[in-house]
Amino acid sequence: MEAEVEIIGRQMRITRVFNGPRPLVFSYWKHADKLEKWSACKDATNCKVEMDFRPGGWFTQKMHITGAGDFTISGKYDEIVEPERITYHANLGPALVNVLVEFIEKGKQTKVVMTHDGLPDEFHCKTVSQGTLEGLDKLARLLAQANAVAA
């Protein structure tokens, strides 16, 4: 399934179904070494993630984006209900954004709904959605590899 993107004002919602059970899909948000492999746009290199994955914990993601320079995203985890949802707020530079990631079991698939609330404007909604979609494409490929190994 291709991702669906909905932008309303300062809120952006992305929905995508992944081939893989919910605990496996959730694990790609839970571990820094897994996040480093997918959680950036296609032009990102040298992606490094440090995290303390627990409510009240933190994360920092550093990357270089070809043609745009170095970027750092940091944030704090507000709620983690494994393997159902993660809520956190992230400093994206021009705004502090509240993010909700929901993992919905669909048999052997997992529907992921990511809602970003508080983006400064439509331009940032489109920019963040593009980078997020490119990252989710990478995640889909990683899950396909993991499923092939498990089969």
Short description:
It contains three helices and eight strands. It has 151 residues and is α+β, with helices and mostly antiparallel strands. Strand 3 and strand 4 form a beta hairpin.
CATH class: Alpha Beta
Question: Which stretches are low in confidence, meaning pLDDT under 50 for 5 or more residues running?
Answer: none
Question: What's the number of helices?
Answer: 3
The assigned structural class equals alpha+beta
Radius of gyration over alpha carbons? 15 Å
Outline type: globular
Number of domains: 1
Largest sheet properties:
8 strands, antiparallel
Task: Tell me the strand order in the biggest sheet.
Answer: 1-2-8-7-6-5-4-3
The proportion of strand residues reads: over 45%
N-to-C SSE string, H for helix and E for strand:
EEHHEEEEEEH
Provide the residue-averaged pLDDT: 91
Task: Write down how many β-strands occur, each being a DSSP E stretch of 2 or more residues.
Answer: 8
Tell me the layout of helices and strands.
Blueprint: E1 4-8, E2 11-19, H1 22-30, H2 32-38, E3 44-51, E4 58-65, E5 69-81, E6 85-91, E7 96-106, E8 109-117, H3 122-150
Antiparallel strand pairs: 1-2, 2-8, 3-4, 4-5, 5-6, 6-7, 7-8
